[in-house]
Amino acid sequence: MKKIINTPNAPAPIGPYNQAILTGNTLYTSGQIALNPVTGELVLDSIQNETKQVMENMKAVLEAADMTFENVVKTSIFISNMNDFTEINAVYGSYFNATTAPARETVEVANLPKFVNVEISMIAIK
């Protein structure tokens, strides 16, 4: 049985999807971009601030499912410019314990929703 996870502390979906789905003990999140959930505006002033907003949105989704970044077992990072990898990785890494960090892939893509620079999705297990 699947449980829909939605929280006002992360941006509302901009299409026919939910922020996350919990099935059993496994949480599958939709990709998050740097939309500020309060203002609805994109945070694009720097790649660091953009990535931080993405991670804060993801934190809110995890919390809505009674989880933390410690529960995350897999992440997917999509970036529009691989030259931003070092800055994105530094912000992303600050949310995880290096010894228990999840598996991950980082992929450069041609475009992302709303032409943002980074989108991240996660799988977490209770």
SSE topology:
Layout: E1 2-5, E2 20-23, E3 26-29, H1 47-64, E4 72-79, H2 85-93, E5 103-108, E6 118-125
What does this structure look like?
- The chain has 126 residues and is of the alpha+beta class.
- It has one domain: RutC-like (60s Ribosomal Protein L30, Chain: A, 2-Layer Sandwich).
- It is 21% helix and 27% strand.
- The protein is built from 2 helices and 6 strands.
- The protein has helices spanning 47-64, 85-93, and strands spanning 2-5, 20-23, 26-29, 72-79, 103-108, 118-125.
- The chain has a 6-stranded mixed sheet, with helices on one face.
- Strand 2 and strand 3 (26-29) form a beta hairpin.
- Helix 1 (47-64) runs parallel beside helix 2.
- It is globular.
- It starts with a strand and ends with a strand.
Provide the low-confidence segments as ranges: none
Helix content: 10-25%
CATH C-level: Alpha Beta
How much β-strand is present in the residues?
25-35%
The gyration radius over C-alpha positions equals 14 Å
Gross morphology: globular
Spatial gap, N to C terminus? 16 Å
Number of helices: 2
The CATH homology group name? RutC-like
CATH topology heading:
60s Ribosomal Protein L30, Chain: A
At CATH's second level, what is the architecture? 2-Layer Sandwich
Largest sheet: 6 strands, mixed
Q: Strand-and-helix sequence, N→C?
A: EEEHEHEE
Strand order of the largest sheet: 1-2-3-6-4-5
Indicate the mean pLDDT. Answer: 97
Count every beta strand, where a strand is a DSSP E run of 2 or more residues. Answer: 6
Q: How many structural domains? A: 1
Assign the structural class, choosing from mainly alpha, mainly beta, alpha/beta, alpha+beta, or little secondary structure: alpha+beta
